[in-house]
Amino acid sequence: MPFWNQYTINGFIKAREKTNVAVMVTGALEAHGEHGPLGTDSLLPDHLAKAVAEKTNALVLPTIPFGDSWYFNQFKGTVSVEPNTLVNLYISVMKGVFKQGFRYLIVINGHEGNTSHLATAAKKATMKGERVVIIVDWWRDLAKDARKITLETPEGHAAEDETSEMMYVHPHLVDMSEVKAARVVTRFRIVSAQYRKDLYPSALYGDPRKATVDKGRLIMEQAEEELIELVNQVEKGKLPYEDTIVS
Q1: pLDDT reported for residue 185
Q2: Sequence ranges of the domains in the chain
Q3: What's the CATH number for 4-235?
Q4: N or C: which end of the chain has fewer CB within 10 A?
């Protein structure tokens, strides 16, 4: 099916009658090493969202391409949105979706800096009704088996995993002639504007030198399958959790 913004009013009404699930896509615009595109965190979930639009009845919203990129705000090309602004935007979009009668909203999130803000917004947006927001941090929640099999180095920012995925989805946007590795390990979490470039030298965290198209393909294909399975499950009114026995 087309994306939400490609319908006319009447087309939207007909499409809405076929589904109770909407999909929201969130990303970021920030430095990804010297080899990766600035829009990596939007381009990858957008690719997954297209698969959902093509293979399910869920209505997919246009990707929100900006996020909380505070940690990379000192690098050229990064545009970061203030947390309060981001939360309010997410709340407005979520409430707008539920106003159209949807019961379920699946968020395909492509950027870790957005995760806590999405959770805050979801609490607000679902406070007064029988509505459900499912937040999928796709790089963490999907394709775990494929990652275990394919990756030779730890996951990270603009690392082997992300670089491989971008090489598969948009190979023309990756400049492997500029690739290098960097990973600063800290015992505790350090938050400091002054030391952002020290903590993330070259705007990366990991080793993208072992990235390949085939690794990216395996990860993205499994992620697509799992995401489509999730949408179909939620369409039937079944949420992705298992009952446990409390003794």
Answers
A1: 87
A2: 4-235
A3: 3.40.50.10310
A4: C
